[in-house]
Recover the amino acids of this structure.
């Protein structure tokens, strides 16, 4: 009868529903449905905290609750970038399985393959390549995976990247217009010699090298001046 009386007074059905919801709110129902959904959505910071702590179960749970695996936090990057930088292969596996983008970059934080190559995590590098990571990806301010591996002197990773398609002559223009390539950033002689053997060039020109007393002698690049210098 109450509903009929309201209708007779010209109250519409939406008004009836509003009235019913008001009753539910007073009874402790209805009032928190929308806020609860918003509040329960995991944040990128929560995802990265779970990765940092090595809690793979929490990582999976957060994604199941709706966390975006590709959301980033400035200074740390995405969950996959952080896991790759820290060499946490199991978490890298879990994130890839649950939809994380293998090549998703974060400005100032590189991408998963770049940070894994820089940190020397060969198992993570292999897993990312297996998942389809681009060995020639360029991220502004963070260069390429091969340049980073070469600079840190990680010969094994340099070899692996080249074997899987990394271009030994792919360079980038960095700060102040300086040209950086795998060869002019190479951190040790073993990496330099390997890159030259794979056809690395200086400023687009073939590297002149010759053996002296069993050692490889070659021209190397002064990265700051962008000009070859004789060694």
């Amino acid at each position: 009868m109450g509903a009929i009386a309201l209708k007779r007074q010209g109250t519409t059905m939406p008004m009836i529903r509003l009235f019913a919801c008001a009753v539910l709110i007073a009874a402790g129902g209805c009032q928190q449905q929308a806020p609860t959904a918003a509040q329960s959505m995991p944040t990128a910071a929560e995802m990265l905290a779970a990765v940092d702590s090595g809690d793979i179960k929490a990582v999976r749970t957060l994604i199941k609750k709706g966390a975006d695996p590709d959301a980033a936090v400035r200074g740390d990057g995405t969950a996959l970038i952080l896991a790759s930088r820290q060499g946490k292969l199991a978490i890298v596996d879990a994130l890839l399985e649950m939809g994380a983008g293998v090549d998703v970059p974060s400005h100032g934080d590189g991408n998963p393959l770049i940070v894994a190559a820089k940190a020397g995590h060969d198992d993570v590098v292999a897993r990312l390549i297996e998942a389809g990571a681009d060995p020639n990806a360029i991220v502004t301010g963070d260069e390429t995976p091969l340049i980073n591996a070469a600079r840190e002197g990680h010969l094994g990773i340099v070899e692996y990247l080249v074997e899987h398609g990394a271009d030994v002559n792919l360079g980038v223009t960095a700060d102040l217009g300086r040209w950086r390539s795998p060869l002019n950033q190479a951190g040790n002689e073993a990496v330099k010699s390997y890159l030259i053997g794979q056809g690395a060039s200086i400023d687009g020109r073939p590297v002149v090298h010759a053996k002296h007393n069993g050692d490889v002698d070659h021209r190397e690049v002064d990265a700051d001046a962008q000009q070859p210098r004789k060694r």
Remarks:
- Residues 1-36, 204-231 have pLDDT under 50 and may be disordered.
- DSSP finds twelve helices and ten strands in the chain.
